[in-house]
Design goal:
The structure holds 2 protein chains of 2 kinds. By secondary structure, chain A is mostly helical. Chain A has 9 helices and no strands. Classes of the chains: A mainly alpha, B mainly alpha.
């Protein structure tokens, strides 16, 4: 167990240093997986982790919503909400399409949801279904957004001030 | 010293509110209740009290590493083969979402309501990278950050619905 945790820390820190999107989470998963695969025996995940991790992720996310954040939201709130709802609906549409063609991973709606990587992976862990697939879908999404970011900048309407 | 102890007390109180609400929601059988309940509990306690807590980076990093470790500990050789088969649907899903973000930008522009940095604001994810780009090029980083914060909060709020519509 200690070797697995040490590998997770090393993998996470290395991936962050390499500036991989979602690096800390993805790198630590790869580090822990490497040790698990090398040992050829699957370690039991302590039951307390299945409760403590979702709660920790959820609480830290909740702390982002402060009064100051709410004040700053007001000016663009409507458009931001419309945009968020539309992209979430699109994610649900993608989930339905993947199910229809038989390509859906377990917990498909968590996998195709547009964001909140740690919360969705934490939820997959909580419901004990498809956490690896969910993490992989989100990692691919993040990497593609980063790879395509020069295109996004080129599509910005307003010229550099 | 006293100020630090006071801030630590507030932090622990908000953590307690999040954990308590998460446990209640989990026990009530709400899908994704542990996470969803703790988000609601911590946010509600923060908004009611007005306390603004800066989460220590080491703690946020530790939680992410624990999430990653927990995923890694479930990996077997069979799952590696399984993940290889998921690359195509994962890429297709990501490209559709990115195209969807661009479509939302197009609609916002057509309706005259697009913020500066609209393409960065409506992109589905990688908020640190996109906000950094907005800062670097002076494209309304604040508005870009707001769009991403709202998206993340809406995704979190939608978790019970996602699990209801597509039960795992």
């Amino acid at each position: 167990m200690l070797a697995t945790l040490a590998a997770a820390v090393a993998g996470g820190l290395l991936a962050r240093r390499l500036r991989l999107p979602g690096g800390l989470l993805v790198g630590s998963a790869i580090g822990a997986a490497a040790v698990t695969l090398a040992s050829e025996s699957r370690l039991p995940v302590p039951a307390a982790m299945n409760i403590a991790i979702p709660i920790a992720v959820g609480t830290l996310t909740g702390l982002l919503l402060t009064r100051k954040a709410v004040r700053e939201l007001r000016s663009v709130l409507l458009m931001a909400v419309c945009s968020g709802v539309a992209i979430i609906a699109l994610g649900l549409g993608v989930a339905a399409a993947l199910e229809a063609i038989g390509w859906a991973p377990p917990a498909v709606a968590l996998a195709t949801s547009p964001g909140a990587l740690s919360v969705l992976v934490g939820t997959a862990i909580e419901v004990q279904t498809g956490s690896m697939e969910v993490a992989m879908f989100h990692m691919v999404r993040l990497m593609l957004v980063v790879l395509l970011s020069p295109l996004l900048v080129a599509l910005l309407r307003h010229p550099d001030p | 010293m006293r100020r630090r102890a006071h801030a630590a007390g507030q932090f622990l109180a908000l953590l307690g509110a999040g954990a308590g609400a998460g446990m209640v929601a989990g026990a009530a059988g709400i899908p994704g209740g542990l996470i969803f309940g703790s988000v609601v509990g911590a946010a509600a306690a923060g908004l009611v009290t007005g306390w603004e807590i800066t989460v220590p980076p080491w703690l946020a990093n530790l939680v992410l590493i624990c999430v990653g470790a927990q995923i890694g500990m479930r990996v077997t050789r069979d799952t590696v083969h399984l993940l290889g088969g998921q690359l195509l649907p994962a890429t297709a899903a990501a490209l559709v979402l990115i195209a969807g973000g661009l479509g939302i930008t197009w609609i916002l522009r057509r309706t005259g309501r697009s913020p500066r940095g609209d393409v960065l604001a409506t992109s589905p994810g990688a908020l640190e990278v996109l906000i950094a780009l907005a800062v670097e090029r002076n494209y309304g980083a604040g508005q870009v950050a707001v769009f991403h914060l709202v998206r993340v909060l809406l995704v979190v709020a939608s978790v019970p619905l996602l699990l209801y519509l597509f039960p795992p």
